[in-house]
Amino acid sequence: MRTSGWGRIVNISSDATDGWPGLGPYATAKAGIHGLTRTLAVELGPANILSNVVMPGAVMTERTQQNTTAEQREQIKQHMATRQLTTPEDIATLIVFLGSPINRQITGEVIRINGGR
After folding, report:
1. Which of 7, 26, 83, 87 is an active site residue?
2. Taking CA atoms, which of 33, 38, 57, 65 is between 20 and 30 Å from 73?
3. What is the pTM assigned to this prediction?
4. Which residues pair with 53 in a beta bridge?
């Protein structure tokens, strides 16, 4: 089992790459991260370096909670298959997994974490 000498790259993107009005430059930059990550996966894979993207949707940070009403949060939940708001802890758990030695084969992936929105 190869466990030493492994490296991990975890980039953060956004669901803005799906197309949101007024976010063209931002979405372009995030899409570039996707391409770079996939290229790094191919180029660095032989050196045991895994490269992935975490792509969150709406995350209920303190700021998001302050800037949305309870009604708006409920509307967001209704668009999610899980009917649960994504928390920063949900995102952190995925990042920790991808960056850990437990992850031995996931590379070149853009992983959405949005409750199935």
Report:
1. 26
2. 33
3. 0.86
4. 11, 110
